[in-house]
User: Which sequence fits this backbone?
């Protein structure tokens, strides 16, 4: 059981359970190939986010790509996870399960489930998880979290990751391709206090309405600056298109960049100083009524004069982070 304390929109501190599951260790302990596998039942991690956080190592600074976009780290369900061993080396690592259609911090409304799976392949094998050269494929297929009486859209989330990490984990580099269907919404685009009405609300809702397809790519990694590995440079770059049918004319296409330096004081305490940016990368432009009609006929009707300056301004933050782990 893992607790989670968070600030609600009212400003109050709330308490909820992040993880709450039963784990059966080594149900196939008599097998050389599957002897290290586990089964989990309850409110548990999804197959991608927790695994990728372990690869990136800086979850306490910023979210991994699909976790930032829409995929939660935690769902209620049942899953199986473990390496497939051969002659003392790990060549395959898999994780699959059936989960609720919504994350741990939302009420489930749907009467359907999502299937998620991840498969990581180490061509030359590895003796330390997430090290050496590897290729990871992930897919999640389900439906929107809507009441059974309401029409629900099919959702699909896909990631393909190629990575290399040294066995001492001092150096790591990874590249990722992302694809989605109905896997992004205005709730993901404007978290916190977003526009409740007006042109930005109307345009963003129209851009992400109906059946949409998403595409993106990412790079991330870290590198030790000294022999001990106490000082590391780390960074992440993410490019994302929320609706590929509007490629080139979607004002909400964005880049996210993170870069910083981390200092491990001891095994319990780590500090980081970093810069984080979100930029909508198209040059500022206007949309005429005919262009708005191409997105949504109602949008064109509501704004006969068109919309001006539709590309939002970017954001920049400079952070000092601390992780206390015990």
Assistant:
């Amino acid at each position: 059981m893992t607790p989670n304390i968070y600030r609600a929109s009212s400003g109050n501190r709330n308490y909820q359970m992040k993880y709450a599951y039963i784990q059966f260790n080594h149900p196939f302990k008599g097998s050389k190939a599957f002897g290290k596998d586990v089964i989990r039942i309850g409110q548990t991690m999804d197959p991608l986010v927790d695994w990728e956080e372990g690869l990136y190592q800086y979850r306490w600074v910023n979210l991994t790509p699909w976790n930032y976009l829409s995929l939660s780290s935690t769902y209620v369900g049942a899953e199986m996870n473990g390496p497939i061993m051969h002659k003392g080396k790990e060549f395959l690592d898999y994780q699959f399960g059936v989960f609720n259609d919504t994350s741990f911090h939302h009420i489930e409304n749907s009467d359907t489930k999502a299937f998620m799976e991840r498969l990581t392949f180490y061509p030359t094998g590895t003796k330390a998880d997430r090290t050496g050269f590897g290729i990871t494929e992930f897919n999640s297929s389900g439906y929107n979290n809507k009441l059974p009486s309401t029409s629900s859209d099919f959702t699909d989330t896909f990631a393909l990751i190629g990575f290399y990490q040294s066995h001492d984990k001092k150096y790591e580099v990874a590249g990722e391709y992302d694809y989605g269907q109905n896997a992004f919404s205005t709730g993901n685009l404007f978290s916190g206090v977003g526009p409740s009405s007006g042109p930005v609300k109307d345009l963003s809702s129209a851009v992400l309405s109906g059946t949409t397809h998403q595409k993106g790519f990412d790079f991330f990694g870290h590198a030790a600056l000294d022999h001990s590995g106490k000082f590391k440079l780390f960074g992440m770059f993410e490019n994302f298109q929320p609706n590929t049918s509007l490629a080139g004319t979607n004002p909400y296409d964005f880049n996210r960049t993170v870069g910083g330096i981390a200092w491990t004081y001891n095994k319990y305490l780590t500090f980081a100083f970093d810069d984080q940016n979100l930029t909508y990368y198209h040059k500022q432009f206007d949309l005429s009524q005919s262009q708005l009609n191409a997105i949504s006929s109602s949008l064109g009707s509501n704004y006969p004069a068109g919309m001006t300056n539709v590309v939002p301004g970017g954001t920049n933050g400079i952070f000092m982070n601390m992780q206390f782990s015990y």
Notes: Helices lie at 49-56, 65-69, 186-189, 199-207, 289-295, 297-302. DSSP finds six helices and 14 strands in the chain. The CA atoms of residues 231 and 263 lie 5 Å apart. The two ends are 15 Å apart (CA to CA).
